[in-house]
Amino acid sequence: EENREIAVGYGYISEKDLSFGVSHMENKNDRFCSYSSIFDLISGQLSGVTVVGRDVYVRGGTNSFSLSTTALYVVDDQTTSSIAWIQPCQVKSINVLKDGNAAIYGSRGGNGVILIETLK
């Protein structure tokens, strides 16, 4: 049995030690390459996540301090305003943090956080 490590914003945690819900996708056998865009890849694949056009919304995100209601995108530990440039074949894993689990990002994470790790 493989022991996966999942990105949780402040580092990585072993899947068996995870004590809170994180939606997770991992690119095994290059299956992400069959999708035409990062938004097609995410759409309908992650619990509590909705894609509308080029915007990703995480259920439970209730940030009243931000004008935006879209999730915060973090790609390879760097925040970014868009993920449209990412090709699905480049993605190693996607994790979604919501509610209190996104608190490590402060008010910017109030609408949820999409953590994307690319193949380097």
The gist of it:
The protein has 120 residues and is mostly beta strands.
The amount of helix comes to under 10%
Cα separation of the termini: 25 Å
How is the biggest beta sheet arranged? Answer: 5 strands, mixed
Percent strand: 25-35%
Q: Quaternary status of these chains?
A: single chain
CATH superfamily: TonB-dependent receptor, plug domain
Task: State the helix count.
Answer: 1
Question: How large, in whole angstroms, is the Cα Rg?
Answer: 14 Å
CATH architecture: Beta Complex
Mean pLDDT: 81
Structural class: mainly beta
Word description of this protein:
- With 120 residues, the protein is mainly beta.
- It has a single domain (5-118), classed as Ferric Hydroxamate Uptake Protein, Chain A, domain 1, CATH 2.170.130.
- It is built from one helix and nine strands.
- The chain has one helix at 38-42; strands spanning 5-7, 12-14, 23-26, 49-52, 55-58, 72-75, 78-80, 91-97, 113-118.
- The protein has a five-stranded mixed sheet with strand order 3-8-9-6-7, with no helix packed on it. Strands 1-2 form a two-stranded antiparallel sheet. A two-stranded antiparallel sheet has the order 4-5.
- A hairpin with a 2-residue loop joins strand 6 (72-75) and strand 7.
- The two termini are 25 Å apart.
